[in-house]
């Protein structure tokens, strides 16, 4: 393939309800889409992070500069454009996995469309549909939390994840268990809000039979997570701390995690995400697909990944309506607690032009 044009399309889409985590509150999905035009086909992707570096060090304005000044010039210099060459070509740019993932995914979408191959087929998917979990933000009161969880369960979600932070942990977990029972698949996500000094406190979650506790301690501190895992029986799951397959191998070897959250954006794209899956699966460590409140563009590709054999736990791959009154693609709709894996070429979806126009701020060519 030959690269002809790369365009950044800013989008701002209101969330149906504010999403509060230990690192902040989101009310709008405010990011950019990457639109890649080649001589063979076009591709789309979505930058997964936010305007502020609260979840990770990357952010919208920074990623644009990284793409424009460091990633695209290296990719444009390749004699042939194909997806497998992107990571080696951009390895000299340290970090910036989310920006790299956006570029790689848009090129992969174009490449697969040129072959007529769905992303699910390319990745090695073994499922036609994937079970949907839902990530429930920190609420103002326990009563509001119980209402929110009740609503999601009525819609059919098969697993609940509660966002937690110091002061909002034991109480909400106890209340949800009391109301919905021991059998509800339930897990928590702290987004790095605790320290090892909280180990005895976190141990009190053990009695609630949680599937896992996600990223309880500071990012990249595998040693501390391993020490915590020695003191609690709830399986530790890592999100922010795993940036590639090598980190995943180290974390498993150290017993710093017994479950892996795979977010393609966080590890630089779907090729590395598949390697993360492979490493964990080879060790018998269950994986599940995380989310970043994606629009239909990011969601479609995540669903393809979540159909791989090692994804044995429901992911944060919820329906479009959990996030948006109107998505920028055909919406993903929950059927019997599952979402369908797209089976048309590439990521399988495209922005709906009329809807995209309404949610688009600035459009800018990065490369012509
Ligand atoms: O830590 O998994 C996380 C959303 C934004 C940033 C980080 C996280 C999340 C979620 C929501 O938990 C997952 C989703 O529904 O997309
Ligand atoms: Mg997380």
TrEMBL record:
SMART domains referenced in this protein's UniProt entry, alphabetically: MR_MLE (SM00922)
Database matches in Gene3D superfamilies: Enolase-like C-terminal domain, Enolase-like, N-terminal domain
InterPro entries: Enolase-like_C_sf, Enolase-like_N, Enolase_C-like, Mandelate_racemase_C, Mandelate_racemase_N_dom, OSBS/NAAAR
An example molecular function term from Gene Ontology annotations: O-succinylbenzoate synthase activity
Superkingdom of origin organism: Bacteria
Domain Mandelate racemase/muconate lactonizing enzyme C-terminal residues, every copy: 142-235
Top EC class of this enzyme: lyase
Protein's name in the database: o-succinylbenzoate synthase
Taxonomic source organism: Streptomyces coerulescens
């Amino acid at each position: 393939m030959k690269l002809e044009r790369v365009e950044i399309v800013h989008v701002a889409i209101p969330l149906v309800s504010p999403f509060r985590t230990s690192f902040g509150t989101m009310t709008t999905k405010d990011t950019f889409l990457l639109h890649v035009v080649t001589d063979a086909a076009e591709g789309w992707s979505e930058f997964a992070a936010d305007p502020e570096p609260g979840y990770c060090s990357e952010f919208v304005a920074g990623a644009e500069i990284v793409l424009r000044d460091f990633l695209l010039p290296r990719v444009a210099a390749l004699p042939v454009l194909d997806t497998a060459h992107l990571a080696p070509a951009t390895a000299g740019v340290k970090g910036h996995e989310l920006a790299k993932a956006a570029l790689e995914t848009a090129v992969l979408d174009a490449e697969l469309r040129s072959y007529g191959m769905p992303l699910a087929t390319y990745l090695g998917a073994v499922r036609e549909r994937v079970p949907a979990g839902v990530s429930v933000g920190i609420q103002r009161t326990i009563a509001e939390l119980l209402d929110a969880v009740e609503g999601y369960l009525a819609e059919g979600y098969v697993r609940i994840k509660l966002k937690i932070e110091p002061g909002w942990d034991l109480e909400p977990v106890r209340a949800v268990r009391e109301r919905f029972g021991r059998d509800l698949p339930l897990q928590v996500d702290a987004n790095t809000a605790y320290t090892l000094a909280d180990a005895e406190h976190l141990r009190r979650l053990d009695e609630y039979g949680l599937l896992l506790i996600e990223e309880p301690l500071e990012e990249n501190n595998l040693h501390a997570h391993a020490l915590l895992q020695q003191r609690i029986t709830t399986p530790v799951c890592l999100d922010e701390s795993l940036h590639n397959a090598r980190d995943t191998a180290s974390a498993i070897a150290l017993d710093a995690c017994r479950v892996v959250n795979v977010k393609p954006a966080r590890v630089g794209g779907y090729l590395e995400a598949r390697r993360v899956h492979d490493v964990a699966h080879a060790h018998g460590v269950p994986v599940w697909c995380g989310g970043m409140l994606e629009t239909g563009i990011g969601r479609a590709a995540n669903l393809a990944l979540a159909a791989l054999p090692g994804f044995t736990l429901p992911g944060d791959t919820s329906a479009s309506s959990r996030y948006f009154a109107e998505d920028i693609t055909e919406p993903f709709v929950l059927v019997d607690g599952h979402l369908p894996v797209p089976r048309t070429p590439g990521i399988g979806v495209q922005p709906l032009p009329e809807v995209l126009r309404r949610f688009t701020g600035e459009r800018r060519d990065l490369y012509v």
